[in-house]
Amino acid sequence: MKSRHVSRVIAVPPELVYEFASNPDNLPSWAAGLATSDVVRQGDALVVDSPMGAVTVRFAPRNEYGVLDHDVTLPSGTTVTNPMRVLAHPQGSEIVFTIRQIELTDDEFDRDTDLVERDLERLKRLVEARA
């Protein structure tokens, strides 16, 4: 299994990036690779329509460390853990997302990497515009 790390430097303090990215209501505005419609809350889980179909997402509890890890249960029933962090950076913050090649062909893995890169770029633009 391969892993890739995708990151973006965001010219905003890490606390503001974390606050925006950790709010489930904001997912459809920046995480098109995950949420293509409004988020439905079911206890501590989020159910979203994604490009893969309906998926269930569980984020790490809110924390002071910038950890946005989340488990995504795919329509196949497989759960994929996605490490994601907001880190302090000399220019503000850096968001890092790890993509793992689980149940994906090489072409699908490349496509998912492209989707995550676009999502993080969209997040960067939205958070910087709000600051």
Structural account:
- With 131 residues, the chain is of the alpha+beta class.
- The protein has one domain: START domain (Alpha-D-Glucose-1,6-Bisphosphate, Chain A, domain 4, 2-Layer Sandwich).
- Helices cover 28% and strands 36% of the residues.
- Strands 2-3-4-5-6 form a five-stranded antiparallel β-sheet, with no helix packed on it. Strands 1-8-7 form a three-stranded antiparallel β-sheet, covered by helices on one side.
- A hairpin with a 2-residue loop joins strand 7 and strand 8.
- It starts with a strand and ends with a helix.
- The model has no long low-confidence stretch (mean pLDDT 92).
- Put simply, the count of helices is 3
State the domain count: 1
Q: Which CATH top level class fits?
A: Alpha Beta
- Main beta-sheet strand count, sense and barrel state: 5 strands, antiparallel
Strand content: 35-45%
Radius of gyration: 14 Å
DSSP E strands, number: 8
**Which of globular, elongated, flat, extended, rod-shaped describes the shape?**
globular
Percent helix, as a range, is 25-40%
What's the rounded overall pLDDT mean? 92
Strand order of the largest sheet: 2-3-4-5-6
Tags for this model:
131 residues, alpha+beta, Alpha-D-Glucose-1,6-Bisphosphate, Chain A, domain 4, five-stranded antiparallel β-sheet, three-stranded antiparallel β-sheet, 28% helix
In short:
This protein has 131 residues and is α+β, with helices and mostly antiparallel strands. It has helices at residues 14-21, 27-30, 106-130, and strands at residues 3-10, 40-42, 45-50, 53-59, 70-73, 79-82, 84-89, 92-100.
